[in-house]
Amino acid sequence: MAHVILTGCTGTAGSAMLAQCIKSSKVAQISVLSRRPVKQAEGQDKVKVHIHQDFRSYPDSLLSELKGAVGCIWALGISTTQVKPAAITYDYALAAAKAFASLNPLFNFVYLSGDGVTRTPGRFTPLFARVKGEAETSLLAMRSDAPGLRIWNVRPAFIDESQNPLKDGPDMLPNGVTPTSPLAAISEDCALETDSKDEVKARIQGKGVTVEEGDTLGVLLANTGIRRLASL
User: Fold this and answer.
1) Nearest Cα residue to 133 out of 166, 97, 99, 86
2) Interior CA angle at 30 toward 183 and 199, to 5°?
3) Is the entire prediction scored with pTM above 0.85?
4) Could you tell me where the beta strands, DSSP code E, fall in the chain?
5) How far out from the chain centre does Cα 107 lie?
């Protein structure tokens, strides 16, 4: 069973990721990085919350506790309506991926991006979509210096909180919505992936899923791909 790192666990998506990993028989240890205590983690034996204030820096003492983790689901983020998302959206994610790449010979970094994000912005592209796209591009570029780092850029659409595994919700949802329960299950699978790039490509490539160029695994999961893999 595996050790995974989670961030953003006080938010809608991150709390669903935590719920998924708590109930999963494939995950033995969960390290949560948070600026404040996480109520959802209380009383959960396999969860350890590391109170961490500076997401640009990871001291050796923290990295030693994270050693052996096979993946991170990076759900730390802010609303698309906020004006200056660069630090949280870009800087924090890249700093974490760089620091975590040496935790395991193969390390999966699952970056929760968003529907509408683009790596080829135009004049009228919203700032949030532009910065998230830049983060995706920079994360993929890091693979050349860290051959064991595998990048999963996951682009959910509107995240439906009613589908959080802790809550009840409708069974069928429109294509513009990403239920949190399937999103969390797919993200967990990405974080735990051990197959080679060719094996992953043969298994999941198709509508809404692009296996990126390069020797090391890089994957883009659009919302249509998330829904397809979740059989929605």
Assistant:
1) 86
2) 55
3) yes
4) 2-7, 27-34, 47-51, 71-74, 107-112, 149-154, 158-160, 177-179, 209-211, 218-221
5) 12
What sign results for the dihedral spanned by CA atoms 57, 61, 63, 69?
negative
pLDDT in tens, 11-69: 889 999 999 999 999 999 999 999 999 999 999 999 999 999 999 999 999 999 999 99
* 140 touches 212 (CB < 8 A): yes
Residue 72: which of 19, 30, 38, 36 has the closest Cα?
30
Using DSSP's 3-state secondary structure scheme, residue 204 falls into helix
Taking the C-alpha atoms of residue 151 and residue 142, their distance in angstroms, rounded to an integer, is 9
Contact criterion met (CB below 8 Å) for 207 and 224: yes
Question: In 3D, which of 2, 153, 154 has the Cα closest to residue 68?
Answer: 2
Number of residues that make up the chain? 232
